[in-house]
């Protein structure tokens, strides 16, 4: 067990909370490459993995790191990597292989301003990349989007169970602000002992007293590949039934709803408080899982409110999925900022007032 | 005159090789090298704790041929995958089997860094100076003047760059424990190649660090030659450019049979 | 544990080496110890020694929504460049604490409360220029007691640890000097102690 105080409120950075959560979830290998704004993640693992006999290795590139994850996952170990937007782009080929080879792992993306080199400020512009697969092929990653340091911890711990359950990469989607800020967090006493986790019978860990195992994503025969893809797809369907997570606030009787995740949802909380104190009936729907997408929840929300405002730190990605499931039931508006600019509560209050006015008109 | 029957086999398929037909072209030397790897695995008793990593290239189906656990890696990333396996399970024996495009072109970074880290893995590197599977394109080891589908007028170093001598490149690093270049063009060469693979694997078992055996190989199909001509061409053209020798040998390596 | 309602956004800025991040950490740790909700967030800049640094701290009695501070309730500016960069990032009736040793400019508006503290000069007189940040903090907390100086001092003790026990005494003195300076030095505008600590 690492030397961190447990069962009491402490201040911790988001990036560090993720790393601690991984260790507490029984993750015993981290491979990564430095990139701002997630550098506290590898730093933390480098310092604390030795306390539990785990592996930390600074890889020569993001590409190498994700392929080390592939090897460690194939050998049956709980493993993760972390990066930020451009580095996650580099990992996408490997993530595709992991998904197609049915290997569990956890990937953290502390999103920064893009595209290209962009900058190192908070952004949510990797939404499409995260929820639509990201690399080549028919796979998806399961995507969790925490909005606080405590939730970064909690969801990262759960992510390892989800990854094992669905034998698929799970993506934790944060941003520069969530990763670098400190908040109070309570780290629970109980931790996962990796030796007590169920044995992965499919792992390539030595073909002793069993037939050999092969970890592979190559199926030259078309029907065979389609069969594998359908098998994997069935897991996504199961995830769509079981893993949808949303949080709602003030939606009872609301005329307007904000749909936002992560940092944008935090901003929404402040804006909604102010708007409500001014008499506006507005609530928040926050997808906690971005894939599977809360389609039913948002569709039913659209039946209950006059309009939806999607707030995101991008020029309009989440809003496309919201519009798809709303399907014209109500107007869907976008409040998006890009390039590392964070939406302010004042921006959002103004947007809500505009919508309320429109509504009255 | 009575014929004496002997019951003991003098030649058989190694236990580490699956009893399946390989997909390699007639005359290709991949089959010989597969057999050598399997023989050494048998002799060192490695199959039950071995994890092999197959490349992308002609040997992409190698995971079908060895009886140990196998992983198919992305193009060029086998050393990184092997690193992942070995770091979390140092008790496993981990080898990669890679071609020249996989190891020396797209995967050169993974190769160099695994070597520099003294990663305790073994690499069997097939250098046949051409991309076989994709249709005979230039490899990083294609000789100057050599005709390929992407150097139709012969490899011009001014345009297409110079070949990479992988062993010499890696020998400049402190990490490698064992580096050797061998060929499989004749029975004596095959014996030498097997000894090199033995030493490479033994180096890993003794936790000495990174080991790599470069095997000069023929590709009669893409070279446009008959198998015997290809073997002769290799001796005459590749061996002078890629000298056969041991580049790094650890002190006190317990090999010899 | 504090119970009275509180919501206060602080922005601290200066250059690398002035202890900007540490000042924010001390404030955040004190708030944590007092049972507050708190968000500490650093600037997003490439790592550069001596380069511009800022951080924000939100201290609240309730759950904190937006972790990003747009306009601060209080600005602690430790050098001239940060005055240029952040001089406007303050609510119209906010408190601006200036390190008057290094900041000569003054805000153009009369609505702000301005506290001029010769923090660097005072720190040097105390024999440790590193405690200028804690002098600023002491002055700020005298004007806006969002946490008690005792809680900050306890955080100092934790941060200094056994290895740097010598730092504890000079920091205690720095906190006290900051508070004293806030009481003594020229105050512009309608400064009323604790006036803009608003409930939520």
Structural key phrases:
heterotrimer, A: 361 residues, alpha/beta, Rossmann fold, 2 domains, seven-stranded mixed sheet, five-stranded mixed sheet, 12 helices, globular, C: 200 residues, Pyruvate-ferredoxin Oxidoreductase, domain 3, 6 helices, 36% helix, disordered C terminus
**Helical percentage of chain A:** 40-55%
CATH superfamily of chain B: Thiamin diphosphate (ThDP)-binding fold, Pyr/PP domains
Distance between the termini of chain A: 61 Å
Task: Write down the CATH class of the largest domain in chain A.
Answer: Alpha Beta
Order of helical and strand elements of chain B: HEEHEHHEEEHHEHEHHE
- The 3D shape of chain A can be described as globular
CATH architecture name of chain B: 3-Layer(aba) Sandwich
Number of helices of chain A: 12
Strand segment tally of chain A? 15
CATH evolutionary superfamily of the largest domain in chain A: Thiamin diphosphate (ThDP)-binding fold, Pyr/PP domains
Structural write-up:
The complex is a heterotrimer of chains A (361), B (257) and C (200). Chain A is an alpha/beta fold and 361 residues long. Chain A has helices at residues 14-24, 40-48, 62-74, 85-100, 127-131, 149-166, 176-180, 222-242, 262-277, 295-304, 318-326, 345-360; strands at 9-13, 29-32, 55-58, 79-83, 105-111, 142-144, 169-175, 182-186, 214-215, 246-249, 256-259, 282-287, 289-291, 307-312, 332-336. Chain A folds into 2 domains: 9-242, Rossmann fold (3-Layer(aba) Sandwich); 247-360, Rossmann fold, CATH 3.40.50. In chain A, helix 1 (14-24) packs parallel to helix 2. Chain A starts with 8 loop residues before the first strand and ends with a helix. The model of chain A has no long low-confidence stretch (mean pLDDT 97). Chain B has a single domain, classed as Thiamin diphosphate (ThDP)-binding fold, Pyr/PP domains (Rossmann fold), CATH 3.40.50.970. The mean pLDDT of chain B is 96. The longest helix of chain B has 19 residues, at 187-205. In chain B, the strands form 2 sheets. In chain B, strands 2-1-3-4-8-7-9 form a 7-stranded mixed sheet, with helices on both faces. Chain B has a two-stranded antiparallel sheet with strand order 5-6. By secondary structure, chain C is of the alpha/beta class. Chain C has a single domain (7-188), classed as Pyruvate-ferredoxin Oxidoreductase, domain 3 (3-Layer(aba) Sandwich). Helices cover 36% and strands 24% of the residues of chain C. Chain C has a 7-stranded mixed sheet, with helices on both faces. In chain C, helix 2 links the parallel strand 4 and strand 5 (90-99). The radius of gyration of chain C is 15 Å and the shape is globular. The interface between A and B is large, with 38 and 36 residues.
